[in-house]
């Protein structure tokens, strides 16, 4: 009896000690978790001036920048591409204009104003955000030179307030030829938008290009910057006061660059004009009735030459995050920032709202035509937003019941860049000239025809079908990209996958510039 009583007493004390240990453990765990959470919610340090250089991305940036030189039209200055020469010197002559500059759109010899203006806007944005990082690897001046080659064309293409030339060349006739641009002898007709034939999206995109570029040149050529800003204001008024889609009013342009709407371009242009001028009326434009009509707040979209909403949301988020004048308590701006967060949450692979539009290898994949446009554009926006968060000391991004850091966005941006540069199932780079394995049969006329070949319009097609790799390297070209099943057919006839575009180059230059090194974001462009 006594032994049993002792045994029960011992067991009771043992249970008390176990319970006490569990309680103490729970208290310690709770305190530690609170301390860790507090530590975890502390913003990461703001980066200083450009730090150490990442050789992979700097090397890729130097290569990507060269495709702008490959695509230049006109009388070339300080030509760096041995197989290129002067071309299209009489472009614009039928209207007594000099439209010889600008850049060819892709592997053809067309000058399409809509995507060319987008190229200029994105390149301007990249320079404004990452100019210090470009300069750290000697790429700022080449970027400015390439931008000016486009804006010189755009200035000349806008001879009066309500007239804008939006296309040089006839795409049907152009695509019946396969020849070097230096040898072109075909007629190069002009297409314009005006008050009778409005084209809001192309006029507004050109306004965005001019406004953003004016900020780039403000400190290096104030007279040129003022000229660009004057054209931007006029073009925006023209676009807004004469609303109409260029795809509907000029149906033949829809075959190549069909616009799905002009509201996004109006908001995009007004946003850039606000950054360039500080004029509150432009801010009121994007946050007021036009914002309600066109912004699609809360509905994430893909950033592209056709749809600028995601870009606009990120661009305007910098006003909220950096506490710009007029941003405090502005519900419209808050809607843009929340929409930008929705875009970011869709991109992060571990987010509850992560998009399923990806390959098995992790590449964002939206379209089989020019499939790399969307992942590269998305990664560029993610890098920007990550840097905005770091510089504004915003510690977390909330996606549903999950929290993410700026470093998570940067990790996503790197994953897309790395895929492009060779970290993919094919172990090949989609950036021509980078790495040991990249496309050899790029769909590009100038690259495919030997410099000493004599060809006319149609007999050059022998080079399109030639089994021999391109004799000239279209260095820096970002080809269309892989299919959803991560296959790629390296064939000159495969324009869906093997054709590069100039606007893709602006996007990859922006992305690579963001990854070259780290530095704090510029809080104001002025």
TrEMBL record:
Record InterPro entries: 6-hairpin_glycosidase_sf (IPR008928), 6hp_glycosidase-like_sf (IPR012341), Glyco_hydro_9 (IPR001701), Glyco_hydro_9_His_AS (IPR018221)
Record: active site: 443
Enzyme class: hydrolase
Catalytic activity of the protein: Endohydrolysis of (1->4)-beta-D-glucosidic linkages in cellulose, lichenin and cereal beta-D-glucans
Limits of the Glycoside hydrolase family domain: 57-512
PROSITE patterns according to UniProt: GH9_2
Pfam family name, one: Glyco_hydro_9
Signal peptide: 1-25
Coiled-coil region: none
A GO term, aspect molecular function: cellulase activity
Domain of life from the UniProt record: Eukaryota
Record EC number: 3.2.1.4
Family statement: Belongs to the glycosyl hydrolase 9 (cellulase E) family.
Record protein name field: Endoglucanase
Organism: Hibiscus trionum
């Amino acid at each position: 009896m006594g032994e049993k009583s002792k045994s029960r007493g011992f067991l009771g004390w043992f249970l008390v000690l176990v319970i006490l240990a569990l309680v103490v453990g729970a208290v310690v765990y709770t305190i530690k978790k609170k301390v860790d959470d507090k530590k975890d919610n502390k913003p990461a340090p703001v980066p200083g001036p450009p730090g150490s250089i990442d050789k992979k991305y700097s090397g890729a940036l130097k290569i990507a920048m060269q495709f702008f030189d490959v695509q230049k039209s006109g009388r070339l200055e300080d030509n760096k591409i041995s197989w290129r020469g002067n071309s299209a010197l009489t472009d614009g002559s039928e209207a007594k204009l000099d439209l010889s500059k600008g850049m060819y759109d892709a592997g053809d010899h067309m000058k399409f104003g809509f995507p060319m203006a987008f190229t200029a806007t994105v390149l301007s944005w990249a320079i404004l955000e990452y100019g210090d990082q470009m300069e750290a690897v000697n790429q700022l001046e080449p970027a400015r030179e390439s931008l000016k080659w486009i804006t010189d064309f755009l200035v000349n293409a806008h001879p009066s307030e309500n007239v804008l030339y939006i296309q040089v060349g006839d795409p049907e006739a152009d695509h019946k030829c396969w020849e070097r641009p230096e040898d072109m002898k075909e007629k190069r007709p002009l297409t314009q938008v005006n008050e009778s034939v409005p084209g809001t999206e192309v006029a507004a995109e050109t306004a965005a290009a001019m406004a953003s570029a004016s900020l780039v040149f403000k400190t290096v050529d104030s007279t040129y910057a003022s000229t660009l800003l004057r054209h931007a204001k006029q073009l925006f008024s023209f676009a807004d006061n004469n609303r109409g889609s260029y795809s509907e009013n000029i149906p033949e342009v829809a075959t190549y660059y069909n616009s799905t709407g002009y509201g996004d371009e109006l908001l995009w242009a007004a946003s850039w004009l606000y950054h360039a001028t500080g004029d509150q009326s432009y801010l009121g434009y994007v946050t007021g009735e036009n914002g309600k009509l066109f912004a699609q707040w809360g509905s994430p979209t893909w950033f592209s030459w056709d749809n600028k909403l995601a870009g606009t949301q990120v661009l305007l988020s910098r006003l909220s995050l950096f506490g710009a004048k007029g941003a405090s308590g502005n519900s419209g701006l808050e809607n843009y920032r929340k929409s930008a967060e929705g875009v970011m949450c869709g991109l992060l692979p571990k987010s509850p709202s992560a998009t399923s539009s990806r390959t098995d290898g992790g590449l964002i994949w939206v379209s089989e035509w020019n499939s790399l446009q969307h992942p590269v554009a998305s990664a560029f926006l993610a890098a920007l937003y990550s840097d905005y968060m770091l510089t504004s000391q915003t510690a977390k991004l909330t996606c549903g019941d999950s929290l993410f850091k700026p470093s998570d966005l940067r990790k996503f941006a790197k994953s897309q860049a790395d895929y492009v540069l060779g970290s993919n199932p094919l172990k090949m780079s989609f950036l021509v000239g980078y790495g040991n394995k990249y496309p050899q049969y790029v769909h590009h006329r100038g690259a495919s025809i030997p410099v000493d070949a004599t060809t006319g319009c149609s007999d050059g097609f022998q080079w399109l079908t030639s089994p021999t790799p391109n004799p000239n390297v279209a260095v820096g070209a970002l080809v269309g990209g892989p299919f959803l099943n991560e296959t790629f057919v390296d064939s000159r006839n495969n324009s869906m996958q093997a054709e590069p575009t100039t606007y893709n180059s602006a996007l990859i230059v922006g992305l690579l510039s963001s990854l070259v090194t780290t530095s704090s974001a510029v809080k104001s462009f002025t």
